[in-house]
Amino acid sequence: MTGTKNLFNKVWELHEVDTLPSGQSQLFIGLHLIHEVTSPQAFAMLRERGLKVMYPERTMATVDHIVPTDNQARPFVDLLAEQMMSEIEKNCREFGVTLLDINDDRQGIVHIVGPEQGLTQPGLTIVCGDSHTSTHGAFGAIAFGIGTSQVAGVLATQTLALGRPKVRRVEVNGELAPGVYAKDVTLHIIRKLGVKGGIGYAYEYAGTVFDNMTMEERMTVCNMSIEGGARCGYINPDQTTIDYLRDRPFSPKGEEFDRAAEWWLSLASGPDAEYDDVVVFDAAEIEPTVTWGITPGQSIGIGENIPTLDQFPKEDQAGINEAYKYMHLDAGQSLQGVNIDVAFIGSCTNGRISDLREAAQLVKGHHVAENVKALVVPGSQQVRKQAIEEGLDKIFIEAGFEWREAGCSMCLAMNPDKLQGDQMCASSSNRNFKGRQGSPTGRTLLMSPAMVAAAAINGHVTDVRQMLEPAGV
Amino acid sequence: MSEIKQVTGTGIPLLLDDIDTDRIIPARFLRCVTFDGLGDHAFEDDRQQDPNHPFDNPAYQNASVLIGGRNFGCGSSREHAPQSLIRWGIRAIIASSYAEIFFGNCTALGTPAVTAAPADLEKLAALVEEDPTREINVDVQTKKVTCGDFTCDVDILDSAREALLSGQWDFLNLLLQNEEKIRKTGGEVPYLNNFAV
């Protein structure tokens, strides 16, 4: 790498332990987050080989995927889930890893807990056996998902073997219109660059749109990097990052914080940093965006119609036909007015307090449409507590939403929250894959939490801008 | 750890693009603490909805070389996905491209995942459909795939090829050898040093 380094390369080089015979780097990991689904087999591998956790103090566990969001009494009704809970409890005890368990008020979705507790910081390398680990890149960390064999490797050695990706700067400049949220920005980027456009790249999100975003909005964008094929995405640390981290439980304190802040800012890519690729988007082009198909790249602005087959290259057409058929949607039709059966607000993408505030603002004084099952699932116990303090729970309950405990819930339906049959779900989550929400024929429309709230009230997909007060009022 | 220079076996065609790991192994089967038995549930939901799914076709039951499309294995990082394919009987994959985490998981499990041109994948799929007993040879060393008279070039990331050929695809042993250097790097990163200047 010649010239001025971008953040990614600075942080990467700081963590390089060695170059392996394969040509990959052995990379030191600053923070290893674990959860109940992808860790039991990894701990078993350690046990088989008689290995210990090398840096238990840089390892943090929580439970989220299988956690029921209604009846949390132990043992869980689902005995398989109970077995997984017992397993992570046993493993963390045996290997000396801190577990934010279900009875700990810091528990929640791993990608919400890390930032909220101040564990996620700029300049770290962060891994977790979960593809949405890219979320933590919002702080200017290199954060990415790994498989279970790698989880075992990181537990035992605090390192993993990885080839350095290229870096693409994804710039979005201008101002987002009212009713257009971080979720729309990320869906727009994935739509334009494709679901495999990011393979081999880390994404650096830059430009005035990201400069102006809150940390929570930045997390939403980085979270979905993987849906565009980029294993990690990040945003350069700035004053917004520092303000967010001040006084978090695991943040440095006092003078140490000031030293940390200085170092964090020094990591940011400079104006003459080099990139392997640069793409630029105009914020004015972004509408509230909704997926119509079975990959997160199959989306449209709410004012558009579902594209017709001839608008796609020939090699894509089989997949497009599969998507129309699975979704029971037609080429050329609008998504506005499409009926929904379920509305889901939550997930590591959009289960933070700002998401709940946006949604609550819309549902206040309205009621969920008849025949729509609507649920709000806070991303963590802290988010839930904060929402209750602000009275958001009452707004949701009065409007006919179910108000749940923290967890992954219906994003991936490894718990009792599942679609039934071919139900159509307006969802603030991250994946609209076939069967993703727990029913093999269930259908998912990805959109912002505000758009989900609007759909819940109207019973069908609605342009949220029609429900917002005119700008300036 | 065994060296993996080539894989030979009959093929199974699944030429769809963007096959995600939720489709390979639906999330409800991740409620487990071992990978045992996952082979029975590979593509379970797809199979229920498609009576002609290749994974249910008696002709392909002994197949070990999967022929896929673009962006194979996208989505979740679940190692349960390659684990379920391997436990079903797959020992090598030929596809147009792979999602990175899935590819890394395959390599870590000693399963070559090579890329081929779409036209070659179509040809291979056609050959296998015509006669499912035809054997396919995936040669990691020469980066070639052969099926009867048909041969095509394939590619694989150098680091993965090297790891498979040298038998060091289970990286754990290799990583463990560097403990001293790991402690050194860990001792130098600012955040483990009170951010001292």
Structure characterization notes:
The complex is a heterodimer of chains A (473) and B (197). Chain A has 473 residues and is of the alpha/beta class. Helices cover 32% and strands 16% of the residues of chain A. Chain A is built from 16 helices and 19 strands. In chain A, helix 6 (182-193) runs parallel beside helix 8 and helix 13 runs parallel beside helix 16 (449-458). In chain B, strand 2 (65-67), helix 3 and strand 3 (92-95) form a beta-alpha-beta unit. Chain B has a seven-stranded mixed sheet with strand order 4-3-2-1-5-6-7. Chain B is an alpha/beta fold. Chain B is 33% helix and 16% strand. Classes of the chains: A alpha/beta (473), B alpha/beta (197). Chains A and B meet through strand 1, helix 2, helix 3, helix 5 and strand 8 of A and helix 2, helix 4, helix 6, helix 7 and helix 8 of B.
Question: Beta-sheet strand percentage of chain A?
Answer: 15-25%
Oligomer: heterodimer
Number of helices of chain B: 8
Distance between the termini of chain A: 51 Å
Radius of gyration of chain A, Cα only, in angstroms? 21 Å
Gap from first CA to last CA of chain B = 44 Å
Would you identify the regions of chain B where 5 or more consecutive residues have pLDDT less than 50?
none
Largest sheet of chain A: 5 strands, parallel
Largest interface: A-B, 86 and 68 residues
Quantity of strands of chain B, as a count: 7
Q: Percent range for helical residues of chain A?
A: 25-40%
Question: Helix content range of the residues of chain B, please?
Answer: 25-40%
What is the residue-averaged pLDDT of chain A?
97
Task: Give the structural class of chain A.
Answer: alpha/beta
> Strand order within the widest sheet of chain A?
5-4-3-6-7
What shape does the CA trace of chain A take? globular
Strand order of the largest sheet of chain B: 4-3-2-1-5-6-7
Shape of chain B: globular
Structural class of chain B: alpha/beta
Q: Helices and strands of chain B, in N-to-C order?
A: EHHEHEHEHEEEHHH
